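WARN retry 2 of 3 for item q-0093 after timeout on previous attempt; input resubmitted unchanged.
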Amino acid sequence: MAEKKEDIELEKIRAKKFQEIMEKTNKEETYVPFTLTDSNFNETTRRHSLMVVDCWAAWCGPCRMLTPIIDELAEELAGEIAFGKLNVDENPETAKRFNIMGVPTLLIMKEGVEIDRMVGAAPKLLIKNRLKRFT
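OK item q-0093 returned
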């Protein structure tokens, strides 16, 4: 009888821990922009009804200025809009396919299809207001 009680308690603890891990994983996935590559771009952008893709390069100063803004928006708009980052130097096929001529470029995607884009660094409020049209 004592063994069964211990087994039940252990199972409760396991279930609680599993739930905590799943909640943490879901939050991290939602709040942190996805890393997009040539190989996962299509699948990832199609999986989300609305996604902003930050096309950037490591050498780009305006891209580095935009990074904290994208991170903040990803957290603020979690559940409404997914965010992803595509390094154009490391993923030239996707950059070429979307005719990315300058960075930073924000692609606004709906189920894998580009519906809008913003080229150049912009203030957070301007980006957020532009995105509100699609939510």
